[in-house]
Amino acid sequence: MPKVVAQPGESIDSLIRKFNKKVQSEGILAEIKKREHYLKPSLRKQQKIQIARKKYIRSKA
User: Fold this and answer.
1) pTM to 2 decimals?
2) Mapped to the 3 state alphabet, what secondary structure does the chain carry?
3) What is the chain's mean pLDDT, rounded?
4) How far is residue 45's CA from residue 61's CA, in Å, rounded to a whole number?
């Protein structure tokens, strides 16, 4: 869990911004969304293949 240390005279808003930035940089929210629903391994593999196809098509265009 990211920690944010308050400096003397620092506002709460700036602390919240720092915390949010750390959470995003560590990918915590993305991990939570990914684990929200269980995906069978076969479906996960299909998704991975579809994403790879999209990337390949975009790189050709």
Assistant:
1) 0.56
2) CCCCCCCCCCCHHHHHHHHHHHHHHHCHHHHHHHCCCCCCHHHHHHHHHHHHHHHHHHHHC
3) 92
4) 25
